[in-house]
Amino acid sequence: MKIAILALQGAFAEHGQMLDALGAEHFEIRQKKDLERGFDGVILPGGESTVMGRLLRDMELCEPLRRKIADGMPVFGTCAGLILLAKSVEGGISCLGTMDIRVKRNAYGRQLGSFSTEQTFKGIGKIPMTFIRAPYIAEVSGSAEVLAETGGKIVAARQGRQLACAFHPELTKDVRVHQYFLDMVK
Ligand code: GLN
Questions:
Q1: Which ipTM was obtained for this model?
Q2: What's the superkingdom here (predicted)?
Q3: pTM of this prediction?
Q4: For a tag on the chain, would you pick the N or C end, based on fewer CB atoms within 10 A?
Q5: Read out DSSP for the chain?
Q6: What is the fold, at CATH topology level, of the domain defined by 2-185?
């Protein structure tokens, strides 16, 4: 199994460390030709979704990536990565738009932009969650299902082979969300 990590901007290296801890092979997508390498799943990291979206479009990565995901390539988006996957974005623009979720960007305001908590993640149990200028999911529709909530807000969802969370599991020592994704890829 080989996982591609989008490495245009943001916290991509930390995802590589999680995959190393789980013994999963991985490489970075930095340009269009990297998409031609064979891979079984892709991770979209946290960072700044407007910058990442612009880079994806400028580098002509947006459309091929969107097609792969629409054709069933397993994908895991964290924070800005979640925003890239959302069909509808409040306070931003939809980029890949493959997931039936409506997200609100920078949803917790400046003061509460960054915080940590521990909540239940469906199928895993209690996990630590680190939020950094995080979005939340205002609504899921279609076949998208809620996997985790905190403070009455949806912070993780899954739709088929698409997994998205508003927090950063790669910034904790807990590898279970990444393991969950690898199980989806298998
Ligand atoms: N606020 C960022 C955005 O809108 C997301 C923050 C993050 O990825 N940690 O893209």
A1: 0.95
A2: Bacteria
A3: 0.97
A4: C
A5: -EEEEE-SSSS-HHHHHHHHHTT-EEEEE-SGGGGGS--SEEEE-SS-HHHHHHHHHHTT-HHHHHHHHHTT--EEEETHHHHHHEEEEETS--SS--EEEEEETTTTTTTTSEEEEEEEETTTEEEEEEEES--EEEEE-TT-EEEEEETTEEEEEEETTEEEESS-GGGSS--HHHHHHHHHH-
A6: Rossmann fold (3.40.50)
